[in-house]
Amino acid sequence: MAVWSLFRYRNSDGSSKDWAVTTNADGSISTRWGKTASRLPSINTRTGIRQHDIERQKQAKGYVFVGEVEIDADGNIRLPRSTTMAASSPMPSGNPPVPLDKLYWHVDCRAGHVTLLDMGIALRRWLGDLGSWSQTQGLAVSDWSGWQRLIDASLGEDAFDLSGQIHLEHGVLPWLWLMALKHAAYPGVSVGIATESGRDVSAELKAETAVLALFDTDVEAIRPLAENLGLLKPRLDLALAMADQTDHWF
């Protein structure tokens, strides 16, 4: 069974579609595609093109690499066989369970000029909050490319569609930045964040303990920052709240 490279595209409505490619023994290229599922029914084989080139074309359209999988003649997706496995070892069926070590993001903006302006101001304000927090924590600045791409797009007046990945080495801050944008829910702006298994990440920070754990943190560790970004409601400090109250006990 051939090993295929699997790619995924996130739609603005949260759904996704997959595309896979492999190079055959005779040098031809086979591709499969369909909605994200345990089977890719559609197939096409052609010559005169390299796998690397066709992968770059797909990535330019917003597809992101998921991993290598095996696909049988009926389009059923399985994990690649390990070289140490016996040939008769059964392979699991269903969607390939990919380890959680990166996130996929997608921002589709069809907002008007006023909304785009407000969004751009908010993105830069949140970026300042992230920078201040990083400085107090003694963290290095993340080299994630999404910062500049999204800021540049928000400064324009045209609709845009951006996507990419957040890797472990980028740290938790890019995800929190996109979470703030998702939580703000600007009209005409769709923000999709997903794990490698295709699970959509919600805008509720407390519900995303698995993603927080991915970046080796938790809600309490980032609470002050999350409150500044609007992802958590500020906690009421009862002692401070009562400090200025007149004592009426008698």
Binned, the helix content reads: 25-40%
**Which secondary-structure class do the elements indicate?**
alpha+beta
Overall number of strands: 9
Global geometry: elongated
Task: Report the uncertain regions.
Answer: 81-99, 237-250
User: What do the pLDDT scores average to?
Assistant: 82
Count of runs of 4 or more consecutive helical residues: 7
Report the radius of gyration as a whole number of Å: 22 Å
**Strand and helix order:** EEEEHEEEHHEHEHHH
Largest sheet: 6 strands, antiparallel
In oligomeric terms, what are we looking at? Answer: single chain
Proportion of strand residues: 15-25%
Number of domains: 2
**Lateral arrangement of strands in the main beta sheet:** 4-3-2-1-5-6
N-C termini distance: 84 Å
Give a description of the structure.
By secondary structure, this protein is an alpha+beta fold. It has two domains: 3-78; 102-228, no CATH class. 30% of the residues lie in helices and 24% in strands. The strands form two sheets. A six-stranded antiparallel sheet has the order 4-3-2-1-5-6, with helices on one face. A three-stranded antiparallel sheet has the order 8-7-9, covered by helices on one side. Helix 2 runs antiparallel to helix 4. The longest helix is centred in the middle third of the chain and has 25 residues, at 113-137. The radius of gyration is 22 Å and the shape is elongated. Mean pLDDT is 82; it is low at 81-99 and 237-250.
